[in-house]
Fold this sequence. Notes:
By secondary structure, this protein is of the alpha/beta class.
Amino acid sequence: MQILDGKALAQKIEEKVSLGAKELKATTGRVPGLAVILVGHDPASQAYVGMKKKACDRAGFYSVTHEMPDDISQEAIVKTIEMMNQNPNIDGILIQLPLPKHIDTTKILEVVAPTKDVDGFHPYNVGRLTTGLSGFVPCTPLGIMELLAEYKIDPKGKNCCIVGASNIVGKPMAALLLNANATVEICHIFTDDLKKHTLNADIILVGAGVINLIKEDMVQENAIVIDIGINRAPDGRLVGDVDYDAVAPKTSYITPVPGGVGPMTIAMLLSNTLKAAQIHAQEEN
Ligand code: NAD
């Protein structure tokens, strides 16, 4: 069993991005800029936004967080995004999810200019991804593809079972793996007999938000297991969706939580923001 070390790879990518940002500044004067919109006081969201801001600082990016109260109106969020769309110092716009129930998330995500959509959630970029065209790809699945590539794991022809079918994790993960010529199955809360599907998989990718969802008897010998889940265990530890201690010995490769997919997500956000800044710099010339 080998650990897929997302923390180490994320650091390597961050260093490359910092260099890229320095180079961009030296050649065009442009500093990559990220705007984050944070609505409400969810502690997990606040922690994620804090981590993203620190990562921007490390990479030499400009970043700004727009904090808004829980009862903010849809119109006020739209207005702020439109301002960021027009702001030449901003290359990427990130709406920290989830938004409060009274806000229409789909509509909000559609307001983000596709060239500033560094989370890859705008339908324009979703469409480009599913048709195999270049564009912005959601950070978590993109980071997983980078991690697989780093360890020379080629998904081509492999049976991949994705557990979780959200727009931000499962669905774009499926599109990326399909584009890489894998055979892809997507399971979700209504899937009958989850074990039947996971047992057939060379690569299991799980992002459901359920502690110990993937148990030892659900994983074939030498499978590759990618744990996307982030959960708080009753004892306060951060854990994934995989019963790690029991499953890991059976696998050929596995991601730990923390230190697997999580750091890669942040590294990809930086990478996408640099890419946006490079595109904007080119458009200016
Ligand atoms: P979500 O609630 O939007 O989607 C969860 C998905 O899992 C749904 O498709 C649901 O049908 C499925 N599911 C839930 N329970 C299941 C079960 N018992 N069996 C099979 N499928 C089940 O959540 P999300 O935003 O996609 O996040 C999923 C998990 O990934 C969470 O733990 C989240 O914290 C984590 N996450 C991690 C990162 C990262 O950077 N590592 C990024 C995003 C999300």
